[in-house]
Amino acid sequence: MAGAELIGREELAEIQELFNKEKVNLYRYGGGNYKAREFEEKFAAWMGVKYAHAVSSGTAAIHCALAGSGIGPGDEVITTAWTFIAPIEAISALGAVPVPVELDETYHLDPLEVEKAITPKTKAVVAVPMWASPKMDELAEICRRHNLTLVEDAAQALGATYKGRKLGTIGRVGSFSFDAGKTLHTGEGGIIITNDRDIYDRAAEFSDHGHMHLEGLPRGKDPRRAKGLNLRLSEVTAAIGLGQLSKIDFILRKAKENKKQIKDAIRHLPNITLRPFADEDGSQGDTLIFRVRDREAALGFEAHLMGKGFGTKILPEALDWHFAGVWDHLLKAYDRYSDKDLESLWPKTGAMLRSSICLNIPVLMDDDTIARLSAAIIAAAEEMG
Ligand SMILES: Cc1ncc(COP(=O)(O)O)c(C=O)c1O
């Protein structure tokens, strides 16, 4: 839950400040707006990048990041078979072809599978860090060798790092979400970050009907060079984002501390396998993943935790929204998948996901809750045998 747990006075003060202005303007490109710009500048500074552009959702952010990178009809975009469906939707909305590939042992894009999936039509690789880092050195090297754009949809991994570098800053462009389940929560919202001026400009244009935002020109005279949509962020949402951003270091630190305590309490269990990492120190506290024997054991585990008042997150209960193997409604529209049994295309990923448990680690956990959750995991593991 992260940022959503801490919404309060600071966010309200930012909104109040907006309303205290002589002429309130809640529209991002209206006269006198400033919260969206301030949020972008502060976010870019926290990430250590030159440019940030805030938009209406995380889905909009990856859509703009890809549009800004020049992805278009017929281009193939390699990504992971385990992700929330949004990046696949964004690739598809641009007329490009999503090419999901199998996971490695860290639950991320397997660099060997990426390399195998490259064709002359491949234009980009979208890495989707799930609260930790993919093997970014290997992915960056593959993209460099094949002249592909490396994109990071880091919606789930704000604040996570790889070898000391913040995720989202390693590829040419990164995107984040601020929905209710993310590190920062603004109601709805998202942002793209990059050091590449051209990608930034084009992504910002795409988010605003193609408006080029040329200085000194009235909006109605603003030219365009490509098509777009309205994916803008409102000033109110940006104000909430400013309040949330002031809490980010606390959120990241607390979740990490909580997760460490829980992991230390359960790491001795012989019948669960904690997921391995490309860089464990850089992983987020937000979510704990481990594997059990099989699907039946995972469902039993979930039921046991539910009985003790603890839910799971994504795995196993929301697999349908996070696995390419069940997305017939989207992938069957493409020739390469139309006559395929999707499930059989990513057997390793399917088996991993079906036997895994994902747990949300809240920021606001007292010692008693941490002890109860740890005890519930231990009891579920013992029951599983
Ligand atoms: C990897 C990834 N990308 C994009 C999104 C979409 O974000 P939003 O809900 O803000 O549209 C999500 C949401 O869970 C996600 O996990």
Automatic annotation (TrEMBL):
| Entries under InterPro entries matching the protein | DegT/StrS_aminotransferase, PyrdxlP-dep_Trfase, PyrdxlP-dep_Trfase_major, PyrdxlP-dep_Trfase_small
Domain of life per record: Bacteria
Q: What Gene Ontology terms describe what this protein does at the molecular function level?
A: pyridoxal phosphate binding; transaminase activity
UniProt keyword Amino-acid biosynthesis, yes or no: no
Per UniProt, what is one Pfam family of this protein?
Answer: DegT_DnrJ_EryC1
* Record family assignment: Belongs to the DegT/DnrJ/EryC1 family.
Protein's recorded name: DegT/DnrJ/EryC1/StrS family protein
